[in-house]
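Per your request, structure below.
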């Protein structure tokens, strides 16, 4: 819903921003009082010119000479205190709002579905939290303080102007407002350019993230020069946009100045003739002129305020696009409670598409209590997609997935995921200690349990060789950790979670045959009594599964035990023969 307030459009979402501002009402008030002090001091300075001129210089009043300098010192003191207080309180509020917005953004982003993270580039998301939010800060701190200070300065100075000579005042005010129209016109353009700049910045961030994270590939393919050029192209685009912004923003000032000059020329001509004809004292005239000159600065600042506001609102739009995004993976209104112990998992005519790309086409399967179900097939067949549906990383398009006969969408998402431990093909660890990584999601685990999990995953020995053993930060190890070692840490993490449903998606793909044989034993121990989905390339690791499903192009084309499938001489037998042949060649 759009609401028009003056020349600025205020949307509902901006009212949420105002709600953040309202939380800081006390400090805003203090800041405003400080702003008022500045405004009053500025007006007082303009006013004081008249007694200085007329009483001291024209009348040669010695008593006044003793008093006025003291008054002036006092006025400057008030002005200084006001400036400090205003900066302090307004920035405090600005920073506080930034912190709240950042937290709110992170809070929302963490709860968004996996599909969102696959769609958005990491760098772009980072840009929302760092860059865009920062722009909002300047909106809040400088805009709020400037609007109070400058508005009151304008009001007070206008008072002084009218008090000194109302006829001259009316004459001056005929000319000044002419300056406002181009300002608002420019404000609209500032907003457009600012959006462009922020988007280019987000793109730059995403680019940096990708080329730094993937630097090994950049080097391996000798693409440094190519990436440099792509980067230079982006900075060039950003540069052009920024300059465009500078042009628009800097146009406001000369336009204002020109109209200001018109007003001042007029005041000098008109006031000068009044002084010459004796209708006004020189002090009144100079004081009047000083007021008009002092008026110029706050009016100009208020015009910048519009620019800041336009930039801020553009940033707010991008921030609120995320804050208002709804996760489509929702908890049910009346959640069912999860049964304790082992579970059975059933797929009934499950269809799934990524967008409009159908991937799974009518999957029926049953993974009974504590049984192991293996999924095999060429890559791209949909195995990962299939297992991703169980923890509701994605919701199915049609059909039903049930755990213990209840649709998984009838459980609370957190309850459902509590029952599932996942080991993925790409091992993901966080920059915490090895201990914390293994205990991830299980922070109350004691050292004994952590060590036991590490031993079972055959990770204990190499962890002890780390500089600080279990207390080594993953980041300290950097690339010293091999793929196989990372995978074993991930397996330890899953072992410690001790969940009744286990998903192993090529969990041993980075291990060499020897390590795999060891970890395989650990996994077999782990799989006992649990309902397990295992995806593996090496068919030797799936041979012992209770049931093997062959997935081709989103369909299950064969199922049965290893022996049965070999006897059928279908897809599985073909895969097996292929692997056997390639193994034979290698040895
Ligand atoms: N996030 C995604 N968005 C769109 N398509 C995807 C996504 N993830 C996988 N796919 C596509 O879905 C198909 C199945 O992929 P996947 O489940 O990873 O297969 P597998 O694990 O059997 O190799 C592939 O064609 C793949 O390109
Ligand atoms: Mg896969």
């Amino acid at each position: 819903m759009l609401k028009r307030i003056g020349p600025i459009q205020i949307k509902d979402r901006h009212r949420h921003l105002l709600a953040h501002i309202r939380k800081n009402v006390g400090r805003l008030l203090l800041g405003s009082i400080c702003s008022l002090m500045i405004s009053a001091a500025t007006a007082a300075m303009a006013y004081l010119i008249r007694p200085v001129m007329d009483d001291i210089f024209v009348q040669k009043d010695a008593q006044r000479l003793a008093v006025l300098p003291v008054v002036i010192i006092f006025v400057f003191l008030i002005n200084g205190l006001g400036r400090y207080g205003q900066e302090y309180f307004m920035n405090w509020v600005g920073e506080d709002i930034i912190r709240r917005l950042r937290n709110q953004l992170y809070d929302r982003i963490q709860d968004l579905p996996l599909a969102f993270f696959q769609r958005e580039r990491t760098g772009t998301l980072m840009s929302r939290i760092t860059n865009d939010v920062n722009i909002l800060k300047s909106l809040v701190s400088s805009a709020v303080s400037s609007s109070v200070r400058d508005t009151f300065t304008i009001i007070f100075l206008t008072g002084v102007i009218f008090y000194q000579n109302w006829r001259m005042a009316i004459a001056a005010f005929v000319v000044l407002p002419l300056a406002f129209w181009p300002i608002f016109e420019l404000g609209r353009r500032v907003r457009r350019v600012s959006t462009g700049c922020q988007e280019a910045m987000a793109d730059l961030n995403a680019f940096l993230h990708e080329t730094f994270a993937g630097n090994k590939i950049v080097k391996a393919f000798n693409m440094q020069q190519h990436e440099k050029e792509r980067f230079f192209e982006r900075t060039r685009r950003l540069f052009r946009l920024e300059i465009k912004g500078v042009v628009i923003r800097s146009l406001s000032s000369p336009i204002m100045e020109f109209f200001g000059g018109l007003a001042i020329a007029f005041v000098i001509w008109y006031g000068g003739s009044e002084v010459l004809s004796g209708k006004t004292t020189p002090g009144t005239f100079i004081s009047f002129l000083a007021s008009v000159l002092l008026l110029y600065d706050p009016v100009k600042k208020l015009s910048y305020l519009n620019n800041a506001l336009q930039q801020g609102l553009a940033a707010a739009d991008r921030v609120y696009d995320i804050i208002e995004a709804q996760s489509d993976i929702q908890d049910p209104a009346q959640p069912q409670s999860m049964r304790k112990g082992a579970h059975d998992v059933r797929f009934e005519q499950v269809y799934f598409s990524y967008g409009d790309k159908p991937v799974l086409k009518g999957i029926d399967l049953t993974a009974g209590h504590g049984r192991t179900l293996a999924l095999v097939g060429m890559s791209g067949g949909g195995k990962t997609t299939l297992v991703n549906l169980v923890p509701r990383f994605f919701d199915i398009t049609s059909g039903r997935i049930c755990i213990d006969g209840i649709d998984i969408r009838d459980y609370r998402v957190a309850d459902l995921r509590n029952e599932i431990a996942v080991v993925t093909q790409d091992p993901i660890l966080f920059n915490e200690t090895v201990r914390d990584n293994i205990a991830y999601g299980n922070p109350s685990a004691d050292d004994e349990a952590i060590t036991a999990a590490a031993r079972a995953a055959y990770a204990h020995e190499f962890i002890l060789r780390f500089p600080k053993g279990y207390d080594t930060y993953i980041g300290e190890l950097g690339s010293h950790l091999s793929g196989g070692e990372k995978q074993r840490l991930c397996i330890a993490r899953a072992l410690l979670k001790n969940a009744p449903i286990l998903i192993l998606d090529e969990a041993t793909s980075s291990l060499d045959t020897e390590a795999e044989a060891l970890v395989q034993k650990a996994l077999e121990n782990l799989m006992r009594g649990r309902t397990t989905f295992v995806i593996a390339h090496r068919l030797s690791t799936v041979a012992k599964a209770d049931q093997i499903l062959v997935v081709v192009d989103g369909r299950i084309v064969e199922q049965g035990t290893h022996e049965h499938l070999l006897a059928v001489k279908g897809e599985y037998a073909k895969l097996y023969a292929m692997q056997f042949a390639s193994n034979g060649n290698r040895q």
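The domain at 2-323 is CATH 1.20.1560.10 (ABC transporter transmembrane region fold).

Regards,
D.
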